[in-house]
Amino acid sequence: MNAADAASNAAAPNDPSHGPAHGLARTGRILAFLLKYRSAGVFTGLDLDGTGAAPGDGPPPTEGKPEAFVDDLEALGPTFVKIGQALSTRPDMVPPAYIAALERMQDDVAPIPFEQVRATIEASLGARLSHLFSEFDETPLGCASLAQVHRAKLRDGREVAVKVQRPGIGDLVRADLDAIAGLAGKADALTDLGRRVHFSDWVHEFRKTLLAELDYRAEAENLERFGEHLREYPELVVPQPVWDLTAAHVLTMDLVHGTKVTEISGLHRTEHDMGMLASALMRGYLDQVFVHGEIHADPHPGNLLATDDGRLALFDLGMIAHVPPKQRERLLKLLFAAVDGRGEEVANETIAMGTRLESFDEERFMREVGQSVARYAAHSHSSARSEGRLMLDLVGLSTACGLRTPPELSLLGKTLLNLEQVATLLDPGLDVKRVVERHLEHVMRERLKKSLSPSNIASELIEVQALLREAPRKVSDLLSLLAENRMQVRVDGLADSPLMESLQKIANRISAGLVTAALIVASAMMMRVDTTHHLFGYPLIAMLLFLVAAGLGFTIVLSALLRDRKARPREERGPR
Question: Which residues pair with 355 in a beta bridge?
């Protein structure tokens, strides 16, 4: 995306023409983009044979199209840059060639004028810039589609980084999300792929995550919480927020000096223990997911910095997904089974946490997953068969076999893939699988200890006590009802149920059809009766009866074509 496009997109909400007409034009532009790539393999070119090929295994069938797709996506503005980054975690929606192109998507845009930065800071924090900071560098450290970061110094001499949101970006993002939600709903209703993957659910989750990212107070809380959770890993550091200088559109945090992970030299690796940092990063993130229930959706190398004091700093914690306890437990069991090479258990856990569609082929799914896990176990030291790649392949296999997986599984796979990439950059010789396996064992032991803690045991005993106290009375009541033949099963709401509505429609159709047939027969018989009045050369009464019958028949056919619909595909969720 060029600077002009970025500037126009960022300024669009302040334009007086930004209204319903602009919204329709924006929707039309989005629709034109989707129609342009409707037959290019995006969303429809999934690997439905379940081969689970990784990007790079062969040339894509639409060579050159993925790069053009990404360019057009960037040209649509900041919302779609974020959508592209999110789609790179969904191999159940996007083919491998496009996943690879989306992972290379750039988020760098031209900076906004400093006067707009100053105005945003002063309006958000309620004071002049010179009163808030002793120094403020007008040249940004970095620029992205939603914000840019400046170096500054507090009155006490502390160096900080100030993240400032682009003016009007929130209104643009909300308008884009509204338009996308409408198109996603239509895709779910009208396409087979939409019914399988539920674009509306994905857009709904993406909307919550992106709008939360626009509130920098939430990101400040994430920084504080991650810093607390990772305190037991001295190798890792999370810059802490300055709450007095943080608001919805401004985030002030510690400034960390260091080197980007992608720019670490070979000499630096020989002088510092990079393997220790990589191992700590893997273990810290596994704790975040399986102990604290939070997935940082984008831990790529650009968000990590090797500090001058030999630690690893984590940045950009705006997009965090929260994992419920039961889902967390299933993800842990699934990943542990995958690392251990137990394909059947991996398949069973995936089925348990997914939604089985009407077309779900369980036998094929079990076979394909078993083979994929076996390949992973046989080539565990190859980066092409890493834990993250296995999770993403599992999502693709699920979609191909008619099983809709939860988004947390894709996020886990993408997070592991990014962590493996960072670990390889830090220490190419690190055995990532061994680190993951050992730490998962540690997590399992800690969870077992926690389940056997006095408080948990007391809670379970209270439930058992309540069951033992109430069970005799309930059994006695049940036996009394059976003995007196007073056991009843009541079904409420049948009169107003969809079943009765459908039966009534059928009865009305049959009645209308019988009336139509009777009118046609009557008109045919009246044709033989000569009358003084005629219409189109035929007896008037006979023609009137025929026209009424024709009108009724046409109405029945039109109603069947327009209003009748196929039954919704049956979906079956695993046990909760």
Answer: 404, 573
